[in-house]
Specification:
The protein is built from four helices and four strands; from the N terminus they run H-H-E-H-E-H-E-E. The chain is mainly alpha-helical. It has two domains: about 120 residues, Large-conductance mechanosensitive channel, MscL, domain 1 (Non-ribosomal Peptide Synthetase Peptidyl Carrier Protein, Chain A), CATH 1.10.1200.120; about 30 residues. Strands 1-2 form a two-stranded antiparallel ribbon. Helix 2 crosses helix 4.
Length: about 150
Amino acid sequence: MLKEFREFALKGNVVDMAVGIIIGGAFGAVVNTLVSDILMPPIGLLLHGVDFTNLFLVIKEGVKTAPYATLAEAKAAGAVTLNYGLFLNAVIGFLIVAFSVYLLVRAVNRLRSSKPEPAAPAAPPMKECPYCYSVVPAKAVRCPACTSQL
């Protein structure tokens, strides 16, 4: 059983998949930072100082009663919250990752399709009818113009 597991784990596809998962995790961390630290502050500024990470709805108040200025304050008070701002950040992050993957797949498909296509088959050989001098296929036994036998 250990030998079978080793063979499975060392197959090319499993190793490739592991590398993809590791790179995907790192890419996800970069995208999360891009969304939360670079994109959302200017968007929040355009929306008059709204910080998406602090958009939440209090479902049940905690030890300290509402209002809570930040999500961290609400969690520290033990309040139950619906964190739709964090959800918006995750959706924006997902859209960025999905668009990046789309661009990557599109580029790979273009590279694959840039291979030269096989040449078109040559036109069939032609011959001239000795009676009417029209051009007919070489395999023809009758001329389509004058119907004489070739």
